[in-house]
Amino acid sequence: MTQHVYAAEIGDTAKLLADDPFWLILIKVVAIFAFLVVMTLFMINWERKVVARMQQRPGPNRVGPNGWLQSLADGLKLAFKEDIRPVLADKWVFFLAPVISCIPAFLAFSVIPLAGEVSLFGEQTALQLVDLPVGVLVVLACSSIGVYGIVLSGWASGSPYPLLSSLRAAAQVISYEIALGLSVVAVIMFTGSLSTGDIVGAQATTVLGVLPGWFGILLFPSFVIFVVSMVGETNRAPFDLPEAESELVGGFHTEYSSLKFALFFLAEYVNMVTLSAMATTLFLGGYHAPWSGDFMNTGWWGLLWFIGKTLGFLFLFIWLRGTLPRLRYDQFMKLGWKVLVPTSLVWIMAVAVIRTGAIQQLSTAQRLIALGVVVGLVLLVSFLLPDKKVQDTKGVPLAGSGFPVPPLDLVVPKAAPKRKVKVANIPADKAAVTTGKEAE
């Protein structure tokens, strides 16, 4: 690998941000907030246009130039709609739930570097609000806290369907948060730091003088696991089970309207932007160009590279929604617990063997042998585990994960037996009297 020196190297971003005056920090806060709100308005309209193009129909084309102001009109409409609260809803929790969902989504973006060293109003700074030593953990913690808003909204609505949806969301986020966190471990092992600025600086290299030294290439399994977990974490299709319209009416926000509903919508799309930006930071070199050199790799050029890579991940969200059907709940949980989490653990052990071999200066043959032994032991243990068949109390087989599922083929139930009418034995004299009365 050949190391390229950038203006903000590993560890220098935090020192650069420490000298920012208060007014510059305030400008960055307002700019990040405005950027996320504008990206939400853009994403809603872009998603509708892309999905419409996939389905060969016109999308929004009335409001504004080519329909690009439709999201703004929808936002104004939501602001002026009547705010309805169900009678059985908990007043304060019902009000605070969308706020709890929205605030962590904005807060997580504060540790993501948008560009390197730039000159802003005569001050040398980095396009990042703060570079914490545990920046990666801040993003993971904020994405975990956001689920509290979903759970509380379902509980406070006073309706069974939002409650079921919120419980689904809790199980879903907990499951995929584990896989998401494990996929980042390999990046931390290669970088030796939890700082997002250090992780971006560590990817400012080239492999064999041609390929960029992005962790998306060097740690490709971690990259795939992170992308899949990212979609499940944001409750997006094909993992949008908390909002399954065919099963749960409208999901955890069924009873919400007006600005409260708009806050849930805003939180979902801001989470998409934040996790897309995090994937860019961890695996695609952040604000660095795909090639080395000073041209188009310093100053404000980094912001353009960062936004372009983030838009690529956002397009992936839209593409999946317009292509794949919704998964069944047992399939979704099986993918998280039986595929993503074990694969992450095996890959972490493999990365540990590779890093240990590099530190101990082992030969290539010794590294491959050690890696093969680790992978072989894991596969052997997985094959020896028996596949337990689960049955319910009536002896009906369930799915392998224990969740009741509908029959896989069409089963026509047998027709109910015909009801036999019992005729009472009536004496002859009473029968004659009855017959006479009927004749009269």
TrEMBL record:
The keyword Cell membrane applies. One of its GO terms (molecular function) is NADH dehydrogenase activity. GO terms for cellular component: plasma membrane. It is found in: Cell membrane; Membrane. GO terms for biological process: aerobic respiration. Its main location: membrane. NDH-1 shuttles electrons from NADH, via FMN and iron-sulfur (Fe-S) centers, to quinones in the respiratory chain. The immediate electron acceptor for the enzyme in this species is believed to be ubiquinone. Couples the redox reaction to proton translocation (for every two electrons transferred, four hydrogen ions are translocated across the cytoplasmic membrane), and thus conserves the redox energy in a proton gradient. This subunit may bind ubiquinone. This is NADH-quinone oxidoreductase subunit H. It comes from Lentzea albidocapillata. The gene is nuoH.
